[in-house]
Each structure stands twice: as structure tokens, then as C-alpha cells.
């Protein structure tokens, strides 16, 4: 395992609210509806961050907690209000499942969404599930962890004598999911299903003959919940990039007593060949990775394998045990900043002057103004990047700003705002 120096700089994570996970989950879990129990701030974030257009019909809404409601937020009051709202949702949308999304305000004033959900489930004849998605301690991708834990509470138990099968855990695009399922079928791996299932009425059965593997690195709470149900959890690299994807499938093959076929090595070589131009461009480039979506370690591994130098690496949350397989492939002696101090980190990056900085939206413009090319880390969340076939898309996302930065520097379009100003 790589020798990793971990420094925790701050007590809070700089990033989007965990409610951001609804952006991909309400599309992934078909027939679902997400009812956010929160404040006007929660509503504003969802409307602005997700850029809801007038022609769309998003399957999420906000039950707003007003300041005048705070003193009256007894269990009966919350139950009556949410009963009324869920009733309207059922009549208008007829969802197969409703998530009562717990936010920071709901958590602070102790709204018992768990009990309310159980009562409304009985009344409306469909799951009304409490999903803890508070942003007090988590970054935005970890909101998915809370939703998947909610789904686990209604997933069926596997029948006695069920064969040993694989469970894929994590929401990825349908194209990526189909590719992974197709590859596993070619490898002869029996698959139980995917969590979250596209149809929440067909959740995979879970029990001691289930072998679970995470498709995302930020699902530690869900994986621990699976362990408590007797599920065997595999420690695999996140399948992002050619080498990581090969090792992902190899670990699954060995878990099922199969010798990994040579075809996996061939598929990796083909993926590296497809991203040859991007790989050549990134060799020797100095890159800072200070994103906010917990994909920082897998991305750092890919860049290291492409020949780049990682000069700064941080993540909002680090779980050494859950991320052990990704940590093992990092270069020795690297320093990882957990919950970095945003000001101190910005000063470090400006001093380092990397060829590319992968960062959150809030830091991109300040870095660009100083002649530092950037890539928004959120783009990795919403773009298919897992598996062999999407390695090209991933490499192009990274190489594009480097190419742009080179061109702008050649033409003298970058102005270093940190340089001393000469009086007119």
C-alpha cells in the first residue's frame, strides 16, 4: 500500500450541499419522487443549481420549514403537513416510491421523518422512505449514500439456498451500467442486480450469498449497512480508467473463483491506445486535484498512470478502509489534505502554478484569472467516465483545458493577476 500522509486542515467541507445527489437519482430511480423537507435556502439551491427549465417536469419538490413553524414543529404538526403534501404528490404524480429527504434544518429541529414515513407508507400503499441527506457533515455526492441506505430498508431478503451472486452498488448512467453488466456476463459472473435499481419495485434481494462491490468511492455507509446484513463486500478499485477497470473485474473474477481472462488485459491495452493522444499531452504535466465530489483519489490514480505529476491532492472526506484499494495505487509519499482550508489551499496552488487544477466551481475563476487552467470537478460527476469504453471521454475531459491553456499561453491571452502591477 502506498505511503500516504493525511493532513486534516479544517472541520467543514467546502462543496455543494448533499441535496445535489437528487440531480441524478430522480432520473436513475424511475417513478421516484423526492420531497425535500427544508428551508427556502434548500429550495433555492435545488432550483438554481439544477437549472430547472420551464419545459421540464422534475420529480422533486420542497416542503418549506418557515421560521414561524419552528416552535410548532411537533411530531403531529409535521405529520399533518407532510401527509397533506404527500397526498398531493400521490394524486398528481402517482410515484412508485417517495423519499422524505432530511436536510440540515429538519435535522436540527428533530423532525422525525423516519416515523412519519412509516405512517405514510401504510396510508398510501407505497414506500415513503426517510433519506438522510443532511449537508452538515457531507459533500454533495454522499447524499446518494443516504438514499441507498433508505432503499436497503425495503430490499427483500434473499431466499434460502440462493446462489452466490454479485450486487453492484452505486448510481451510474444507464450506458455505463449496461456496459458493466455486459462485461460481467462475458466473464461468467452471476449478477443479482444493481442498487439503486432503475425500477424501485424490483430491488435486488440481499443476504449472506450476496457479494457487493461499489461503483463509487463515496458509499461507505451503504457498504457497512450491507455488511451488517451478512453481505460479503469486495475491496476493489473504483473502475475509472483502463488499469483500474481491469483490476476491478479481476478482483470480481477471483472472488467467484475464476481466473481473470487475458481478454481483460487486451481490453485495457485497447483503452490505453484510444486515449494515446491525451496521455501524450499529459505526460510530465503538474496537476492539482482539489475537487469536491470524492472522485479525487481515482482521478489522481488515472493521471499518475498517464504520466502526470500530482502536486496537490485533497478530498472533502477520507475513509482509509473504504478507499484502501484506490489508496494502494497512489504514488508513495503523497500528501492528502482532508477537508482542506480553502484559503490556505488556494495560496498553495497559486504558488505551485500547476499546468491544470481540477477544482470546484467556486475556485475556478480565481485560478483562471491568474493564468492557471482549470477543470470543474463537478463534470466528472455528470459525465459517464466508468469502464473501458468511457476512458476516452474521461481523458478528453482532462486534456481539453490543458490544450486550451497551452493555446491561450501561446497567444498571450492569460494575464497573471498575482504579478506585481507596474504603475502607469
TrEMBL record:
Protein name: Ferredoxin:protochlorophyllide reductase (ATP-dependent) subunit N
SUPFAM superfamilies given in the database record: Helical backbone' metal receptor (SSF53807)
Pfam family membership, one: Oxidored_nitro
One term of GO molecular function: oxidoreductase activity
Assigned EC number: 1.3.7.7
First-level EC class: oxidoreductase
Domain Nitrogenase/oxidoreductase component, first and last residues per copy: 18-401
Alphabetical UniProt keywords: 4Fe-4S, ATP-binding, Chlorophyll biosynthesis, Iron, Iron-sulfur, Metal-binding, Nucleotide-binding, Oxidoreductase, Photosynthesis
NCBIfam families: DPOR_bchN, PRK02842.1
Origin species: Chloracidobacterium validum
InterPro entries: LIPOR_BchN/ChlN, Nase/OxRdtase_comp1, Protochl_reductN
Source taxon at top rank: Bacteria
Amino acid at each position: 500500500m502506498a505511503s500516504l500522509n493525511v493532513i486534516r486542515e479544517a472541520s467543514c467541507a467546502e462543496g455543494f450541499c448533499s441535496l445535489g445527489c437528487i440531480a441524478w437519482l430522480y432520473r436513475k430511480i424511475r417513478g421516484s419522487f423526492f420531497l425535500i423537507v427544508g428551508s427556502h435556502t434548500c429550495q433555492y439551491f435545488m432550483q438554481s443549481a439544477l437549472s430547472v427549465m420551464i419545459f421540464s417536469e422534475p420529480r422533486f419538490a420542497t416542503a418549506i420549514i418557515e421560521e414561524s413553524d419552528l416552535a410548532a414543529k411537533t411530531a403531529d404538526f409535521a405529520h399533518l403537513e407532510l401527509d397533506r403534501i404527500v397526498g398531493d404528490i400521490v394524486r398528481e404524480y402517482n410515484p412508485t416510491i417517495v423519499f422524505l429527504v432530511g436536510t440540515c434544518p429538519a435535522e436540527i429541529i428533530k423532525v422525525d421523518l423516519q416515523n412519519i414515513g412509516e405512517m405514510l407508507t401504510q396510508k398510501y400503499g407505497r414506500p415513503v422512505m426517510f433519506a438522510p441527506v443532511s449537508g452538515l457533515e457531507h459533500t454533495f455526492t454522499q447524499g446518494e449514500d443516504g438514499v441507498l441506505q433508505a432503499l436497503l430498508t425495503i430490499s427483500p431478503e434473499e431466499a434460502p439456498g440462493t446462489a452466490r451472486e454479485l450486487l453492484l452498488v452505486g448510481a451510474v448512467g444507464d450506458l455505463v451500467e449496461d456496459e458493466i453488466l455486459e462485461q460481467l456476463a462475458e466473464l461468467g459472473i452471476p449478477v443479482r442486480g444493481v442498487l439503486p435499481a432503475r425500477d424501485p419495485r424490483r430491488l435486488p434481494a440481499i443476504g449472506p450469498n450476496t457479494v457487493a462491490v461499489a461503483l463509487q468511492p463515496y458509499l461507505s455507509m451503504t457498504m457497512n449497512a450491507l455488511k451488517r446484513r451478512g453481505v460479503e463486500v469486495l475491496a476493489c478499485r473504483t473502475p475509472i480508467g483502463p488499469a483500474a477497470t481491469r483490476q476491478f473485474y479481476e478482483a470480481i473474477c477471483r472472488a467467484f473463483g475464476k481466473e481473470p481472462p487475458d481478454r481483460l488485459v487486451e481490453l485495457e491495452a485497447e483503452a490505453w491506445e484510444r486515449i494515446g493522444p491525451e496521455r501524450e499531452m499529459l505526460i510530465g504535466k503538474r496537476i492539482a486535484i482539489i475537487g469536491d465530489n470524492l472522485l479525487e483519489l481515482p482521478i489522481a490514480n488515472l493521471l499518475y498512470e498517464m504520466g502526470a505529476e500530482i502536486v496537490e491532492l485533497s478530498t472533502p472526506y477520507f475513509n482509509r478502509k473504504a478507499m484502501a484499494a484506490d489508496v494502494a495505487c497512489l504514488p508513495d509519499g503523497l500528501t492528502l489534505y482532508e477537508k482542506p482550508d480553502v484559503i490556505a489551499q488556494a495560496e498553495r496552488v497559486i504558488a505551485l502554478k500547476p499546468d491544470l487544477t481540477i477544482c470546484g466551481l467556486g475556485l475556478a475563476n480565481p485560478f483562471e484569472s491568474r493564468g492557471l487552467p482549470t477543470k470543474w470537478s463537478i463534470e466528472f460527476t455528470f459525465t459517464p467516465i466508468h469502464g473501458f469504453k468511457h476512458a476516452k471521454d474521461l481523458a478528453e475531459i482532462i486534456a481539453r483545458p490543458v490544450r486550451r491553456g497551452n493555446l491561450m499561453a501561446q497567444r498571450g491571452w492569460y494575464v497573471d493577476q498575482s504579478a506585481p502591477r507596474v504603475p502607469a
